[in-house]
Design goal:
heterotrimer, A mainly alpha, B alpha/beta, C mainly alpha, A: two-stranded antiparallel ribbon, 11 helices, 2 strands, 68% helix, B: Rossmann fold, 2 domains, four-stranded antiparallel sheet, four-stranded parallel sheet, 10 helices, elongated
């Protein structure tokens, strides 16, 4: 079982994950098109009053008001936890020394590695974040109202590799079994990644960064196909 | 929809200064869609006014509440319990002029101030870019003019063809403004309906009117070529 | 009940309309992480004391989401529940916030067009009956 999960199953899941992400990305890209930004003629109608000079004071007030009423200002805890969670979620498996050693011996390339203590701390942050999300999903009415078994399942799926990895690293319980479980749950997560709501990371890239709209973070150079 | 533009902060501050407890009312209708007076604008304005009056050491309290739209009685009744219980000195409205007046009628003892300028009835060309299309003249001739309004799109509001001024296809006012009547002619020719404009229509009172257009400051870079 | 209301649900027409924008809508529905960060951007959610039924994601999941999940095979009662969510619980002010950039207003508008195909239209409380009935109602309530 151990050899299977760390061998053929891992390669299969990695390939499925990468292929799946490419598939999702291409599919999304094809659902959108470049947006023709029509320029307005320079001579604006005489009805347009020249914009009143905005004082530095008002600009400052504007910045503060926008920040306070943004998602960070309105939900600082959620945003902070989510940011730390996501950074650690990506960084800890990608930069873990053990993973990179195996990657290097398998395909000859590797990423920079971080000290084990740091990776351990990141894993704790991921688990704490997952626990926060779980409590939030159960206890906050607006989140509970749209939560289903699927949402809890995906959360569980996401935290399992990190929990089992932590237990394996600290050699708690039966090492080989925990390690096998770690690799197995990691493989399942990789397979599920492009095909579940975890794919929101791909959607974010295309939609929030590129599709024109009030909340677009980019230039708004794309739009959905008509 | 009605397009509005938020007043400068200084002007709003001048209107409400002297009042200690204000209710800022937003509108989920037109002014929300054109990013002038929706819930988000209410929150932002409240923060700015609060900070500004704080900096001046002036006691000031402002609440915000947004309803579906302020031009309908069933929706503005939502303000009743707040106005009654919190006893505001004044009400600020981020709805169009119609909504402001409706509120003022409903709460005649309380001063009601507008926080936006209603500018025209128009369309949402793109995010942050709104253009006038209709002057609400009350006698729509769009059926005869191929869907191009001579009242809002012609600088002189002519009803029976262009004046002698067009420069090519442009209005004599500016080369960037198309002549409405050239556009009407082309549209009707394409539909084989030139007969529509061969009928003489009774003239309206001549008014100098050029199509209104607003491009919000944050979006100017997107739509206006920099020189 | 009106004649329209008694009519059978035409699931084939619903599926035909759903398929027109299947790619985009399914992508948006799949991307929803159920984070509920859209809630406070809705004026009705705040106006109605943070009732989750006014949350943009709630509205979309229980209307368009349901229509896709059930492949248009819904009952008339379900459509009437959706009517409540799409018209009474939403004014299409277009200001829904989504951290992933999901275009919620567009999805609400699309769901409305599907309901219209089944003869279900917007509900406006004071237009429930004939003009005479409406006038009586106005006189009685003063509104």
């Amino acid at each position: 079982m151990y050899d299977f999960v760390r061998g053929p199953l891992f390669w299969a899941s990695a390939i499925i994950c990468i292929a799946g992400l490419i598939y999702r990305s291409v599919k999304l890209l094809r659902l959108t098109q470049k947006k023709e930004i029509v320029l307005c003629p320079v001579t604006i109608s005489p009805k347009d009053k020249p914009a009143p000079a905005i004082s530095a004071e008002e600009r400052k007030l504007d910045r503060i008001a926008r920040f306070q009423n943004s998602v960070i200002g309105q939900h600082p805890v959620m945003v902070a936890v989510s940011t730390v969670f996501h950074v650690c979620l990506f960084a800890s498996p990608l930069l873990l020394l053990a993973h990179n050693v195996m990657l290097s011996s398998a395909i000859g390339i590797r990423l920079p590695a971080i000290p084990d203590g740091l990776a351990d701390l990141m894993t704790i942050f991921v688990l704490a974040g997952a626990f926060f999300f779980l409590i939030r999903r159960i206890a906050v009415p607006k989140v509970a109202a749209i939560s289903s078994a699927y949402d809890y399942g995906v959360l569980f799926l996401t935290l399992m590799p990190f929990l089992t990895g932590f237990l394996a690293y600290h050699q708690l319980f039966h090492y080989k079994s925990v390690l096998t479980l770690h690799i197995l749950t990691g493989d399942i997560l990789l397979i599920a990644l492009p095909f579940t709501k975890i794919g929101h990371m791909v959607f974010f890239f295309f939609s929030r960064l590129h599709i024109a709209g009030e909340y677009c973070l980019g230039r708004g150079s794309r739009t959905w196909n008509t | 929809m009605v397009i509005a533009e938020i007043k400068p902060l200084e002007e709003i501050k001048e209107l409400v200064k002297g009042y200690k407890k204000i209710l800022n009312t937003g509108c989920g209708g037109c002014t929300s869609v054109c990013l002038a007076g929706g819930q988000k604008e209410v929150d932002t304005l409240n923060t700015k006014l609060t900070l500004s009056f704080q900096a001046d050491h002036v006691p000031f309290e402002i609440d915000g509440f947004t309803v579906e739209r302020q031009c309908e009685v069933q929706f503005i009744t939502e303000f009743d319990r707040l106005v009654k219980s919190r006893k505001y000195d004044a009400i600020l409205s981020m709805a169009c002029g119609a909504g402001v007046q409706f509120l003022a009628e409903r709460y005649p003892e309380t001063p009601v101030f507008p926080a936006v300028n209603s500018t025209f009835v128009g369309v949402n060309k793109d995010i942050g870019w709104y253009e006038e299309r209709c002057k609400c003249c009350g006698d729509c001739v769009l059926g005869f003019t191929g869907g191009i309004c001579p009242v809002s799109m012609c600088a002189k509001g002519l009803f029976n063809g262009p004046c002698g001024g067009p420069q090519g296809e442009s209005c004599e006012v500016s080369k960037d403004i198309p002549c409405a009547w050239v556009a009407i002619y082309k549209r009707l020719k394409g539909q084989n309906r030139l007969e529509s404009i061969r009928t003489i229509h009774a003239p309206r009172q001549w008014r100098d009117q050029i199509q209104g257009r607003i491009i919000l400051e944050p979006y100017k870079a997107r739509y206006v070529k920099s020189e | 009940m009106t004649e329209c209301a008694k009519a059978k649900v035409d699931s084939d027409t619903i599926v035909e309309i759903l398929d027109q924008k299947k790619g985009r809508m399914r992508a948006c529905l799949d991307a929803c992480a159920a984070c509920s960060l859209c809630a406070e951007s809705c004026l009705l959610y705040r106006e109605k004391n943070n009732d989750p039924q006014y949350m943009p994601s709630y509205k979309v999941i229980n209307t368009l989401g349901r229509l896709y999940r059930k492949r248009g095979r819904v009952s008339r009662e379900e459509l009437e529940q959706m009517q409540q969510l799409l018209w009474s619980n939403c004014v299409l002010c277009g200001r829904c916030y989504c951290p992933f950039g999901i275009d919620i207003p567009n999805m609400i508008a699309f769901a409305r067009s599907i309901l219209r195909s089944q003869g279900i239209y917007g509900v406006f409380p004071h237009t429930s009956g004939s003009p005479e009935a409406e006038c009586k109602e106005i006189d009685a309530t003063g509104n």
